[in-house]
């Protein structure tokens, strides 16, 4: 089964898995369902009715089942015998805390290492990853949100790649962190503030300042965690 988990170990980060693929039908169907999951139009735990999607997206069952299989590989969809597909359940508060603890242990240090290895090419890649989504530009909010979830995953993965520890990178990738976190809450504040924090990181990277990068990443993760905590109220 094809999944989006980056497993190619090249020197340059393989981010192809995070970029919407070709304009093929299967790709478009995947993106449509991904956006519905991210923006909670299909809420965590909800049954996913294939026939309903067939009517809504006006396609046959084949690309839908293909997309659902891919989303299953990404941990966003679960398939239950005799029941069918449903959206993965919301992560529990405890798991959320554990995830941020793990990220806080690994990502600030990785940002520091990445800053020390920074060059123009890497900086340009990071700038692109951080900025592609841009600010509010009138596009569909739900699509914007799901695209940001993917961009954020890519941005953080790039930093881990430049930090140079593949085990750490794989460990965090394996958690599909960003997809689960972004499903906690569908709110524009989540993206707007994160963009400011990404800019602070870019400034530190541009200066090759390891301690500033470490601090900016710590602040970003702590703020990100605090922004999402109300989802558990
Ligand atoms: Zn981020």
TrEMBL record:
The keyword Nucleotidyltransferase does not apply. GO terms for molecular function: DNA binding; DNA-binding transcription factor activity. InterPro entries: GntR_C, TF_FadR/GntR_C, Tscrpt_reg_HTH_GntR, WH-like_DNA-bd_sf, WH_DNA-bd_sf. It comes from the Bacteria. Residues 23-90 form the HTH gntR-type domain. Keywords: DNA-binding, Plasmid, Transcription, Transcription regulation. SMART domains: FCD, HTH_GNTR. This is GntR family transcriptional regulator.
